[in-house]
Design a protein that fits this description.
Length: about 375
Amino acid sequence: MKLRLDRRLIRNFDYYLLLTTVALCAIGTLTLYSATYGLEGLTDPLHFVKRQLLFAGLGFGLMLLIIFIDYIDFSNWAGYLYVFNLFLLGLVLVVGEEEKGAMRRIQIGFFDLQPSEIAKVIIIITLARLLAEKEGQLANFKDLLPALAATALPMALIFFQPDLGTSLVFLAVLLVMLYVAGAQGRHLALLIGAGLAVAPLFWFYLLKPYQKSRLLVFINPEMDPTGQGFQLLQSMIGIGSGGLFGKGFANSTQVRLGFLPDHYTDMIFSVFGEEMGYVGAVVLLLLYFFLIYRILWISTQAKDQFGALLCCGVAVMFAFQILVNIGMTISIMPVTGIPLPFMSYGNNALLVNLVSIGLVLNVALRRHKIQF
């Protein structure tokens, strides 16, 4: 491993991607301040903002460190990272702290380690390695088995925490990376068909009652307006009341009157939509669109298949989380607990998102082979 950055690489640095990331982090921090300032029970009104800024600083530090490491090294380390991740996912089921009926976190001092978040970026690295090694050799279904097996094991451990939302992120990343790597359309259709075929088994035997309720409420929020449907209905009320230009910064009625549960985590887009209105929401979506576009553009410029797949995996991870999180706040997606990248409060998610951007910037820096 070489922690060195050749000056000839600097001209490839993608400032557009970095500035977009900084802008999203800034908007997220301001929205978090609006959503948490003055909350009852807080001795420090800036508690959440301070922690978010602390881990944003740590995340940008990790991003810088990753930029200095040639991304090919991550391909070489993929096996070790994968095994370490399985260890953490297994450990959380044994010693993890229970929160809202789920075992997802391991308390380490002042930091709650959430292995399922780390698993997102590690599975992207793992799949990029496996599929790059199979470049041009995915004509048969059996060629897909290593990637399927590598995804299934951590995905199962996460599902039984239980964490359905992150499990779905894995599925989206797997399918798109297989497609980009050259998997046959009929094989992908077979995988999707198999998934739909076993869906009833998940419904009757594996999903928890609250998970079933969330899916039913997504179809009809009015069926349980004071229970499972309450959060969704209040979210739509908040976004709808924002109108064209919003109620203004720190003027969310849903927050101030305590109507919106999880308003600084899963439902933070509802706060943003109520305060900034339709215009603000469009600006935020454009920033997300540009972020994903830039990552995909970098993937087309990568010097090798591993780098291209790495970027595609990160783009899918972000796109899926953005689609599901914003979709669930306006009732076009079921509530799954997926955070909104760079906006929702969550130290693990923020670190993983910034590390993922670091990997993409790394690929961009080294997109051209240096000639001596």
